[in-house]
Amino acid sequence: MLHAPEPDEDDLDAIAPPQPVFHVEQALLGALLLDPRRLGDVTGIAADSFSTAAHAALFAAISTLPPPDPAEHAKNTKWLDRVLATGRGQARGLTASYLHTLVQVCPWPRHAPAYARMVEAEHARRRLQTAAERLVQTVHDASLPHPVQTVLAEADALAAVVDDIASRFPPRAGVLPRTPAPPPAIAPDHTEAVEEEQLLLATATGHPADIDSVRWLLPGDLTLPLHAGLWQCLTTLARRREPVDPVTVLWEAQQRGLLDDGSEPGEVLRLLAEPAGSVEHWGERALQRSLLATADHTGRLIEAYAGDPANTPFQLVVGARRSLADIGAVRTRWQHATGTVPPQRPRPAPTTRAGPPTTTAAHTARAARATR
User: Fold this and answer.
1) For the segment 208-247, what is each residue's pLDDT rounded down to a tens digit?
2) Rounded to whole angstroms, how far apart are CA atoms 26 and 296?
């Protein structure tokens, strides 16, 4: 006789098994259903700390309903019925049999505080991952009128989440995440960046006296290794007060081995011979790209940390703070470059743990914009 499959039986293998925190939440809710007095021992979590809508609805119901008399609770299910009715207001799929399951799977009701701490830790990891994802999405939002300010505001929001987690799980010295750093992001078409960096180098070569006004720009802010090396040549020659022109820069580049990658001397000379616009303008453009790239890398790194369930909240705090320091360093240089302090989103007080184009024409057009 052919076996008649149950509904959706063929799809069962595609359903991912529940994560460990799901079972922890079940144990916690079971403990509170068995002994509602344990709610007084549970701190640091709220309904939104749970990973499913059903669990959140049940915890909210348990937290808001008056606790039953222990003797009466041992004899009947009146209080459980009220919990179920209240929970169904938020999660219609709740059933009496699921409450029975929760009671059955709870090993020890007295371990409720430990279960709650685990739920709190997992919620912290999800919050950090969400905040890091928002930062990365903001970096890549081409519709933003003021990308730097908006990205820095998201970085502040991410830092606020880290601060709150640290207040709940103080970091231990020297404990870093074990998660490897993600590979470098695939950069979009960077033709504009390359062209603007070429104009920066050529303009600085033509006006070396202006190099000192952009001391906040570092070689690492440029996208190509050759451009970074040529900028270092320019700043070194200017600092030594030596003659600066395409030939002297080319010679310095040779001394530093920058031509070993196959760069043609004639190409370098042509690159440095077409100044346009101002050094400050092109420098600021390069620094903005560097800031956004740093924010993107930081967000993706923290996202990777938070996406690894093996990392403890202590490790997440240490790793996130070290990564956010990179944004802080570029942010300081951006403030020096622009002469303004970007608005920062106020950080809330830590939450207490309470109970419940490549043509000459294109170059000319960019130069015109730079001199406006």
Assistant:
1) 999 999 999 999 999 999 999 999 999 999 999 999 999 9
2) 37
Tell the residue number behind the tokens 């039953």, with chain if given.
68
Residue with token string 């003797």: 71
